[in-house]
Amino acid sequence: MARQGALIGMSPEAIDALLDGPPVVTLAAANSALGLGRTLGYSLAKSGRYPCPVLRVGHSYRVATAELLDLVKVTYPRQETCCHSSCPHAHRPHL
């Protein structure tokens, strides 16, 4: 089954990496996921025009993984559709 983010066209591998990764990622990782170059990504973050909210942590930027997934229109199943709350697929997206 071919899967991709609806808005940006992220690959299934990129989406899986975000889903299996930490709750926040570096701006470089977010740029890569969105297909933005380093200079453009940092310029957008600095000017407040990045495609999703950016967190400033000291001298670095972080992006919430959930925000990236929302940006590419990855949707999640409703919790009651899973067999129990600790079900391993309870938070996997529908693509």
Give a short overview.
The chain is α+β, with helices and mostly antiparallel strands and 95 residues long.
CATH architecture: Orthogonal Bundle
Q: Helices and strands, in N-to-C order?
A: HEHHEEH
Summed over residues and divided by their number, the pLDDT gives a mean of: 77
CATH class: Mainly Alpha
Largest sheet: 3 strands, antiparallel
The best one-word shape is globular
Number of helices: 4
**Share of helix, binned:** 25-40%
Strand content: 5-15%
Q: Write down how many β-strands occur, each being a DSSP E stretch of 2 or more residues.
A: 3
- Low-confidence region ranges: 1-7
Kindly report the oligomeric state of this protein. single chain
User: Main sheet: which strands, in order across?
Assistant: 1-3-2
- By helix and strand content, what is the structural category? alpha+beta
The termini sit apart by 9 Å
Q: Would you mind describing this structure in some detail?
A:
There is one protein chain. This protein has four helices and three strands; from the N terminus they run H-E-H-H-E-E-H. The protein is an alpha+beta fold and 95 residues long. The protein has one domain (12-81): Arc Repressor Mutant, subunit A, CATH 1.10.10. Strand 2 and strand 3 form a beta hairpin.
